[in-house]
Amino acid sequence: MRSPSSIEVRRCRPLLGTFVEISARGRDERLLARGIEAGFAAIATVHRLMSFHDRLSDVSRMNRDAFPKGVNVHPWTWQVMKTSKRFAEESHGTFDITVAPWLTKWNCLPRRGYQFSPTASSRDIFLRRNCEVFFRRGLIVDLGGIAKGFAVDRAVDALKENGIECGLVNAGGDLRTFGLASQLIHLRHPTDPTRVAGAVRLRERAMATSAIYFERRKYRGKYVGPLLDGRTGQSSRDLISVSVAAAECMVADALTKIVFALREKAAGLLAQCRADALLLEGGGAPSWMFHSSCDTRDRIGFD
């Protein structure tokens, strides 16, 4: 008796401030649907814990109360905070989740009236036992530069735990594929996001892309955007896009912000994370590519 052919189930929902699409492939439609629901549930949990906009989230609780007494957070939030501190240290402050005061000033994030020191940084964040987070000084954190990638990773875990062997989770361009089949991922043109500039092929790999084409706005006559250099608080106005591929989407997500600011100077950190990078200039052509592995099966290739 012939086994049934493979089918694909796709679902899309608004979460994390974007549209999240989950696709799963297999032979049992009920199994696929159950796995997809588990994936969305994981993403919804990350959304609830790490939203800057939700006054009951772990992020809001930290911004209110982690200075001067500290707060206990969910293990997932603690894990993202730990990874954020690591990337802040390894990028010498280029990646820093304490740039939220600049984002609220430019109306990229809502103003909440939190007290903060203008010279505070990730160095003032201390992670204690039992998932306690303590701020040495008043500061405001925003996990928008890394939490979306973490959510994608947790969704993939949920899909696998529910018996799904092949699929893709895409949260507004932060995505991860799993399974034996490679998947073609299209990249937007840096100056005209309605056009496709090219595509990369991924297999068992995550990728994140950062650009300002949808989010730049004017502040005092100058364009600003949410991609900041944590060392200077300066917003990039370059119409470029940076895509990074890595084993985990959280890692790729954070690295895009670092490469956006440092460009070729980020090569050492990319190599350390076994990540690839692709930078598209305004014309839509690759201006810089970095491959961390000599194995072409693990590279992102621009088509």
Briefly summarize what is shown.
Helix content is 29%, strand content 28%. It is built from seven helices and 17 strands.
Topology (elements, then pairings):
Layout: E1 7-15, E2 18-26, H1 29-50, H2 58-65, E3 71-72, H3 75-90, H4 100-105, E4 125-128, E5 132-135, H5 147-161, E6 166-171, E7 174-178, E8 183-188, E9 196-202, E10 206-211, E11 217-219, E12 222-224, E13 228-229, E14 234-235, E15 241-246, H6 249-262, H7 267-272, E16 276-280, E17 286-290
Antiparallel strand pairs: 1-2, 2-6, 3-5, 4-5, 6-7, 7-10, 8-9, 10-15, 11-12, 13-14, 15-16, 16-17
Helix pairs in contact: 1-5, 3-6, 5-6
What do you see in this structure?
- This protein has 303 residues and is an alpha+beta fold.
- 29% of the residues lie in helices and 28% in strands.
- It contains seven helices and 17 strands.
- The protein has helices at 29-50, 58-65, 75-90, 100-105, 147-161, 249-262, 267-272; strands at 7-15, 18-26, 71-72, 125-128, 132-135, 166-171, 174-178, 183-188, 196-202, 206-211, 217-219, 222-224, 228-229, 234-235, 241-246, 276-280, 286-290.
- The strands form five sheets. Strands 1-2-6-7-10-15-16-17 form an eight-stranded antiparallel beta sheet. The chain has a three-stranded antiparallel beta sheet with strand order 3-5-4. The chain has a two-stranded antiparallel sheet with strand order 8-9.
- A hairpin with a 4-residue loop joins strand 13 and strand 14.
- Helix 1 packs antiparallel against helix 5 (147-161) and helix 5 (147-161) runs antiparallel to helix 6 (249-262).
- The protein is globular.
